[in-house]
Amino acid sequence: MKTLVLCVDRDDDLGVKAGVNGPVIGRKENLDAALALGLADPEEVDTNAILSGLQLYDDLTKRGIDAEIATISGDSHVGFQSDLILTTQLENVLEVVKPDRAILVSDGAEDESIYPVISSRIKIDSVRRVYVKQSKSIEGTYYMIVKTLQDEKMRRRWIVPFSLVFIIWGFLSFVTKVIQFRDGNYEDIGLLSQMAFGVIGVVLGFYLIGWAYRWAEQFSERMTRMSRSIRQGSLAIPFAIIGIVLAVVGVLIGYDMAVSYREALLEHERSLAISILIFVSGSVWFVVFGVFSYETGKSVTSFLQTGKIRWSFIVMMVSVLATGFIVQGSA
């Protein structure tokens, strides 16, 4: 009976950091892959998982057991896409190696979530989870936290939930204090300080989300691309400017219509819901044609550069127009 030692890298650190595409079959190939990943990121846990798989493979062969080792890797976007890639690579490995059973090696619960997919295709005799020893000192703990926050995936996983809590708490706190302030508590200075705390909570929440998703870097990259497009005479920029102007004009017109409605009625006759509907009704088509202008600029630029028509542009425009009619009808 042939045993397959199967290492799983669900988030494709092997490909992203070391440039090694899965599946990796064979002892030498896996040793080279582990070395490449270790050199790219010495603290990557998947390196230890592959080395642990190699140790297990050597132990099996020393005992005279027919064995082979392979590593399959998924995609950085963990979920359906990564699992689909893992399944395809697993079937390729099974076709090449033709094992009778497997031993799964992983570095945690995330990789082991693919267990049902693997067990549906081959019998799994054992699962080995690899833990990396860490220093228990305060300095070691601090270092672990810093390194975790530097990892983009871990940063999103842990920072974003706290950011949303800050935003929701800050928004509710601010709105509550604004209502109290409007109801006549103008002399309560404490309300103003509490409103400030609410604003700080919202700003801090958005800042943390921006940091987690690298908004500043993405904005800088977009500005660089925009500058390059302007120098190259791209038509997307003027169309985008027209689109932004139309959207801003639409918002101003909608706001003016809503304010005029409220000023024309007595206070007890005013309705916030109707004011919002009037605002939407007055601004919706300006926003729609702003989006239309922006997408037109992108499509024309793409056609001039590639000579191909973006059919998605037509689908997008039909969807936007349909949305405009629906919103207008609702308003």
Keywords:
331 residues, alpha/beta, 3 domains, 5-stranded mixed sheet, 13 helices
Structure description:
The structure is a single chain. The chain has 331 residues and is of the alpha/beta class. The chain folds into 3 domains: 127 residues; 59 residues; 114 residues, no CATH class. The chain is built from 13 helices and 5 strands. The protein has a 5-stranded mixed beta sheet with strand order 2-3-1-4-5, with helices on both faces. Helix 8 packs antiparallel against helix 9 and helix 12 runs antiparallel to helix 13. It is elongated and about 90 Å long.
Task: Summarize, please.
The chain is an alpha/beta fold and 331 residues long.
Instruction: Give the overall shape.
Output: elongated
Strand content: 5-15%
What is the share of helical residues?
Answer: over 70%
Number of domains: 3
Written as H for each helix and E for each strand, in order along the chain, the element string is: EHEHHEHEHHEHHHHHHH
Provide mean pLDDT, rounded: 80
State the total count of DSSP E strands.
5
Topology:
Elements (H helix, E strand, L loop, with lengths): L2 E7 L3 H6 L5 E2 L1 H14 L4 H18 L4 E7 L6 H18 L3 E6 L2 H4 L2 H5 L4 E6 L8 H13 L1 H31 L6 H24 L2 H17 L4 H28 L8 H35 L4 H20 L1
Helix pairs in contact: 2-3, 8-9, 11-12, 12-13
